[in-house]
Amino acid sequence: MKRYGRRTSGIESKARTIMALLEINDLFAFYGMAESLHGVSLAVAEGGIIGLIGPNGAGKSTLMDSIMGLTRTRGSIKLDGQELTTKNTAQIVRLNVGYAPERAHLFPFMTVHDNLLIGAYTARGKLERNLERVMDLFPILQTRRYQETGTLSGGERQMVSLGRALMTTPRIMLVDEPAIGLAPKVCGDIAAALRRLNQESGLTIVITEQNVNFAMSLASRLYVLETGRIRMSGTVEELKADPETKRAYFGQ
Fold it and tell me: Going from the N-terminus, what domains does the chain have, and what CATH number goes with each?
């Protein structure tokens, strides 16, 4: 387990560069004049799943927005060696980065079908194949296909959000708070779908979560984000073995 009270060691920096699809180094993010992220560094291996856990207001969504070019930043965000901080959001999406923000970002008066089509603007040639993939992953959306999205349950809206991100044919998918406000069974269904995507197609996934158990069920590595800083990181086993982390995040 790595604690981040000081600058990351050279050994840790070297480890981050090995097989990293997404690499973030010394990232600061700003909303207006307010600094929301303070020197965040992390790496995501290709084909892996990592979880960013922390309380509300820790900066998890800000980090996702920063990767997508939606905030003003200082530092480096690289996808397969390409610097993202010099690109706008449309250019980042065209690099096969899918983003599933909280379900409140859907268009409620549009149908499920039309919400999904919005995600396909960079992958028109694969539209039918991707639609079939989404419906296979979330069969309930086939039944709800021409229903207004605002009339769906919370879990169904989350499926639409994930499906819209998949319509871009992503190489890496950012998933923001997928379990928020959902019943345990629905959380299990969402987790199973994300696990299937990772295992069957090798999709790299980054998840932010307050629900630590949900994140643990999927991620091979967790980063603990607090007040805009990564305080520690490690495997699930390493974090659970740490008394301070157990008390704060695992209810012990």
Answer: 2-96+171-249 (3.40.50.300), 104-169 (no CATH)
